[in-house]
Design goal:
single chain; alpha/beta; Rossmann fold; GMP Synthetase, Chain A, domain 3; 2 domains; LarE; ATP-dependent sacrificial sulfur transferase LarE; Rossmann-like_a/b/a_fold; transferase
């Protein structure tokens, strides 16, 4: 779940941001944090618990796009933080606009999530939803926060001026074990635009990335392209190891056994979010950052 966090001192600037984050959340009548167990939503959940106590709840979505290890980690983190935790089943896979994966998948995913959480607010006895989006999330094609805007979701980290580096530093200060955890976007994000999202394909990706981690990697991706082609991304420093036997043969055999017909290693190495390059320009223009009601989502392709 990450390495052990060692106590650090906060700079005056980051300490002021921490106070602003707690004040922002403390002014809310109660909040449901969209909690994936990633570093950003974990910091928001911790801050919400500190600021609001029982008036804060972490809500985690469960669907075929969520790796079982991520769901397990979310449960453990919520228990560690002490925040009330609810796991809800979401049904985005029933939506053909989601499964066709034309580049707007994140919008439909977040719409499903926020609609589901919104329906639970009276039962949870809170009135607002908060995400883990930080300022760095504003720089890429990430259409999911259009759904957030439509559901009046708050983004406390952005409101308090947090970058990703700030989030990691505060997590380390608070002793959260995920302070240096690599980004772990949903399994559906591994499908190249135009490749339909199915539970079978997300399962293949989950098991394929588990194979890579068993070989000693922390950061890796298995991208799913047309023709059941797996494009494996590992850090550039690891390319010689993964391109040579015995690792090459072991990896190829394992991924073929999972149902991939072709297995390739990307010579550019691990690059977060690179499938955005395949999103049609028309969609990128539709979700431009300068549209007042449209904003990027807190996950990544």
């Amino acid at each position: 779940m990450g390495t052990e966090a060692h106590a650090i001192e906060l700079s005056a600037e980051l300490d002021a941001k921490r106070e602003a984050l707690l004040a922002t959340l403390g002014a809310m009548p109660g909040v449901a944090v969209a909690f994936s167990g990633g570093i950003d939503s974990t910091v928001v959940a911790k801050a919400a618990h500190l600021a609001l106590g029982a008036r804060a709840v972490a809500v985690t979505a469960d669907s075929p796009s969520v790796a079982r290890t991520e769901l397990r980690d979310a449960r453990e983190l919520a228990k560690l933080i002490g925040i009330r935790h609810v796991v809800v089943r979401t049904d985005e896979f029933r939506n053909p606009d989601y499964t066709k994966n034309d580049g707007s998948r994140c919008y439909h995913c977040k719409t499903e999530l926020y609609t589901t959480v919104e329906s639970l607010l009276p039962e949870l006895e809170v009135s607002l939803i908060a995400s883990g989006a930080n300022l760095d999330d504003l720089g890429d094609y990430r259409p999911g926060l259009l759904a957030a805007a439509e559901h009046s979701v708050r983004h406390p980290l952005q409101e308090a001026g947090f970058t990703k580096a700030d989030v990691r530093a505060l997590a380390q200060f608070w002793g959260l074990p995920t302070w240096d955890k690599p980004a772990a976007p949903c399994l559906s994000s591994r499908m190249a635009p135009g490749v339909a999202v199915t539970p079978e394909r997300t399962r293949r990706v989950e098991e394929a990335e588990a194979v890579l981690r068993s070989l000693g990697l922390r950061e890796c991706r298995v991208r799913y392209h047309e023709g059941d082609l797996a494009r494996v991304e590992v850090p550039v420093s690891e390319l010689p190891t993964f391109a040579a036997d015995p690792v090459r043969g072991e990896l190829a055999r394992a991924l073929h056994a999972l149902g991939f017909k072709f297995v390739t290693i990307d010579l550019d190495g691990f690059r977060s979010g690179n499938l955005n390059e395949l999103v049609p320009i028309e969609l990128k223009l539709r979700y431009r950052r300068d549209e007042p009601t449209q904003a990027p989502a807190a996950d990544e392709l």
